[in-house]
Amino acid sequence: MLLKQQQLNFTKDGSLDLENHRICNVSLPSEKNDVCTKYYADVIVENFNKKSDNLIDALKVLNKNIADADRLWDNKFNSVKSNVENQMALKQKQIDKLANTLSTVSNFNFDVEILNKKVQLLIANLDNEINNLKTTLMGNLADLTAKMNMHLNSEINKRIKNTDDKWKEFLSSNGKDVDLLRERIAKLEQLHPDRKRLKSNEETSTLK
Predict the structure, then answer these.
(1) Which of 20, 43, 109, 162 has its Cα between 20 and 30 A from that of 153?
(2) Residue 55 burial by CB count (10 A; 0-12/13-18/19+): exposed, middle or buried?
(3) Which portions of this protein are annotated as coiled-coil regions (predicted)?
């Protein structure tokens, strides 16, 4: 049974004692002890679920991109590894050829110092090629990582902005409920002008 106006019972501290009666049409609560309608609570939960779903979708995209990056890394690493192994095999053949030349020639006038220089040159060239491959690989990976991070940040920001826009649109579409709440507050103030005044319209409007 609804509480009639003449039955309103305010306590000395300005609180309203409803004596087990219910409050109707509470649409936009603002304080921690305010009550709210089931519709208001349902909307809050629904919007929270939507934001959670958007976040989950963004995390799924992030996980996929991380998996793609791992795959690219593995492919690039295997390619570099194969290239280095091939270069080492080629240099080893060249060294073996020089060694075989020394062991099979019975009468030779071969300068050992020249052979050592050739071997050292082969090793130095191999080291340079390996270092160049590492530098190229790290540069490519850094560029790929930067592009991926930029793309991920852009996608996540789009999803967050879209969710916030929908939330603002919902709040703006419920302006009539705010006006109705203000009218009821004004009526209560007229009935009890000596009680503590509720929050101003400017503070209530910050909910939008």
Answers:
(1) 43
(2) middle
(3) 45-136
The token pair at 64 is 């996929």
- In this prediction the pTM is 0.30
Backbone angles phi, psi at 24, to 5 degrees: -105, 155
